[in-house]
Design goal:
78 residues, mainly alpha, disordered C terminus
Length: 78
């Protein structure tokens, strides 16, 4: 599995979807959700809110709401 080029975290479906949504749908994921949010100068909470909005709009880069649940609203790197 791929890891974040910044912090080394193993990337999951949320990390990959958020990276692709903000960078390029065809991009190979290189950063976790927290590092991608940091790069775009937004909080992790803002990023999670964006993901929820993308899910509700039917974006196929993310699983359906609740499957699997969104990661906790805490930064895993702390």
């Amino acid at each position: 599995m791929t890891t974040c080029e910044v912090c080394g975290k193993e990337l999951d479906v949320w990390d990959a979807g958020f990276y692709k949504k903000l960078v390029n749908r065809g991009a190979e994921p290189k950063r976790c959700l927290a590092c991608t949010a940091n790069y775009f100068r937004m909080s992790r909470e803002t990023a999670l809110g964006m993901i929820r909005s993308f899910q509700r709009a039917g974006c196929t880069l993310f699983p359906a709401e609740g499957e699997p649940p969104l990661p906790e609203d805490t930064d895993r790197r702390e």
